[in-house]
């Protein structure tokens, strides 16, 4: 009897387990609502954006999405806001997990030289609006002609001076106040004049990390006509007599210091509070963001060059679309990007939200804004966008470490050239390894 009861109990358990197993197979655990395919024709896409102006301000971004949904209610856009501390880790983790975002907003260093070079991005060449500046578009295009970034905005990074201090020191005589440019000779004379007027910290070569290093690169390479990379973006070229001469001149100049304890954000703070009289990492966004703290007139300046015509380091930002092997999502992502970039009125608002400049001539952007008009004078001076050279991460690290060693050296051209060569060799080795 006990054996019969045991057999019956075992049979009941098997039937119960079979029923549960059948239920699991036919009714999988529901996914989160946003990830479920819609049966009403709605497509859900994701936009991940790095901190580019107000494109990490939820109110601003939701406003663009609401306007878009008034025209395209069939496309839902979810947003993830990234930062430069761990944003790359989040994106790379998502890629490895097969959950890359549909749209990402950033620059060519990531979209072209990184994810695009790995074959992860879709070609957007057929979406480029007419009139997009050739130089900008070229920086968003890979060697095979694929446009992995649809450029939206740009800036030519510049430097800035405390106009009142320079006027007090009678240093404005060394500046072309119409074009905001100066020669190398005039730059050093101006620094000396400000120093002699009682300001010991005129400018500082910050080198505590890579933050804002576009400023130190532009300063060094422009002074005596040096370069950072070759035109083909296949190798780094900053170990030159010209760049060694520039660094030696900076080491010898009164009022210019090398500080391994600060990065660009610290330099900007010290410029804004009046400790430094010039900043090497500056653009219109910095002036807008620090407007409440500034109690002096900021005067944007191009970096000094021997002939007074510099090649400025620039920034470009735009949209890329990851290839997630989903045609409906890819087309929805492209539809959203077209909405933001094709119509001039909408595009003007998009650009203004970035706090940067447009990448094509368009009416209505920053209309009546004198500050943005002043900074727009820098755009024609934008030079080669060499940040897409392979080995870029290593090249940046080697640069600021080199500056630290130069600042602690005897300041001779020979010593500096050796430091430049060591840094360049390491950068080129990294480029060849990619």
How do you describe this structure in short?
With 434 residues, the chain is of the alpha/beta class. It is built from 16 helices and 11 strands. The N and C termini lie far apart (75 Å).
3D architecture notes:
The structure is a single chain. Strand 1, helix 2 and strand 2 form a beta-alpha-beta unit. Helices cover 44% and strands 13% of the residues. The chain folds into 2 domains: 39-155 and 315-381, D-Maltodextrin-Binding Protein, domain 2 (3-Layer(aba) Sandwich); 158-311 and 390-433, Periplasmic binding protein-like II (D-Maltodextrin-Binding Protein, domain 2, 3-Layer(aba) Sandwich). The longest helix is centred in the N-terminal third of the chain and has 25 residues, at 2-26. The relative contact order is 0.15. The chain is α/β, with parallel strands linked by helices and 434 residues long. It is globular and about 75 Å long. The chain has a 6-stranded mixed beta sheet, with helices on both faces. A 3-stranded antiparallel beta sheet has the order 8-5-9. Strands 6-7 form a two-stranded parallel sheet. The chain has 16 helices and 11 strands.
| Euclidean distance between termini CA atoms | 75 Å
Q: Sketch the major β-sheet.
A: 6 strands, mixed
User: What is the N-to-C order of secondary-structure elements (H for helix, E for strand)?
Assistant: HEHEHEHHEEHHEHHEHEHEEHHEHHH
The mean pLDDT is 91
Low-confidence stretches: 1-36
Based on CA atoms alone, the radius of gyration comes out at 27 Å
Portion in helices: 40-55%
Coarse structural class: alpha/beta
E-strand count:
11
How many independent structural domains?
2
Q: In the CATH hierarchy, what is the superfamily of the largest domain?
A: Periplasmic binding protein-like II
CATH domain class name of the largest domain:
Alpha Beta
Q: Spatial order of the strands in the main sheet? A: 2-1-3-10-4-11
Instruction: Give the amount of beta strand, in percent.
Output: 5-15%
What is the CATH architecture assignment of the largest domain? 3-Layer(aba) Sandwich
Helical element count? 16
3D shape:
globular
CATH topology of the largest domain: D-Maltodextrin-Binding Protein, domain 2
